[in-house]
Each structure stands twice: as structure tokens, then as C-alpha cells.
Amino acid sequence: MKHAIQLVAHRGGSHLAPQNTLAAFRNALNFPIDAIELDVHMSRDGHAIVFHDYTVEKLTNGAGDILDLDFDYLRSLDAAAHFPGGWSEAQQIPTLSEVLNLARGRAQVYIEIKLSKRDGVFGRYPNIVETVVEEIRAAAMLDQVLIISFDWQVLPRVKALEPALPMGALVSTDVWNPREKRAIQRLAERVAALGCDWINMDSRLFTGEMQRSFIKADFNWASGQSIL
To answer: ∠ CA(65), CA(83), CA(64), 5° rounding?
Structure first.
């Protein structure tokens, strides 16, 4: 859907159902959406889980940093515990495989590969790229998935493992200075060097000059704000 408006259920539509849960994704697939968006972390024992935060306190009835938590403990938590207004039943933290199987043939899936974080220090989960790629292959969804990340260093690793997967560089002022000289051109050059097909950013960073530059450079681009 190059240069078209897309309807994307961010975290499954986090204002309508507990974010990044199967309940949210099932609900989103009842709407005429183009894609669901989700976040992937890794449990301590190497399972790809769909969850946004680095710690579980804000969204669940548990405690701890995902880096330190095993899959069985994470699955025991209620990911709907703090949903505003309450939720009718408990929701497990889903695996990436579960969400892919749910969405297969029904919508595109935008997978954000997350960094780890402990005590304010960012890192990378061991084998997260390899695990994500393996699960997409196992689901036979190479043509249905877009990989995105603020961690630009993981994107070439994705492309090296699976050239068929389209990728998008998530852009923020942490990785790009819009006030630097030739900022837009430099951004396009950096993203092209990563092997990306998409540039994704908040609408507050986006300008008409970007639109013209990205089209000329043959990039797909996406900007927007979450409304669900």
C-alpha cells in the first residue's frame, strides 16, 4: 500500500482492549484494518513474547524486568490486570507464534523488535532476531510481515537472515536530528544503507519536504499518531 493511508491497530488497538493481548488482536481483526502492530521481547529462557514494556508492573499483576523472568512466570500473569475500566477475563501475555497464527491471511503484521532495558541501560536480547525470523518462516508469513525497530543495528541482521522480509526504520529524535544540515537527505541515505523499505515516524516529525524526498528516493513512508 505504497503512499496510501493505512489503518493500523497499534498494539492491537490499546484503547479498546488490553494492549498486545489476543483479545486486542481478535477485536482489531473485526474492523476493516490493514495491519496489526505489536512489540516483541524475549523471556529469560528464550521465548518471543508480545509485550510492550520492559517491566511487567504497569500492565500486569506481576513484578520484574522481562530480562529476568522465565516464560512460565510471564504466562501466569494477567495482562489485563490494569486495563482502564477493567476487563471481563484474565489475558495471558501471548507468544509471537500465537499472534502470527491468529493474523495469518487476515491482516499485515508490523513487528517491532524491542531493546532490553535494565536500570536505565539499553541492551539486546540474545537471539531475538533469529527467533523472530524463524517464527515468521514457521508461520509461512514472509509476505505478510513488516519488521520495524528503533534499534537500527538489528535491521541489517534481519535482512542478512531473510532478504525477503521488508523492514522499516522507526525514527525518533533519539536516532535522528531533524535540525542538522541536509537532515532529510541524510536520513534517507542512512535508512537505504540499512536495507530498509520503509521509514516510519510520528506525524509531528513529518513534513511535506519529506514526502517529496522519500517518494523520489522510492521509499515507502508512514507517519501517524495512535488513536486506538
So the answer is: 10
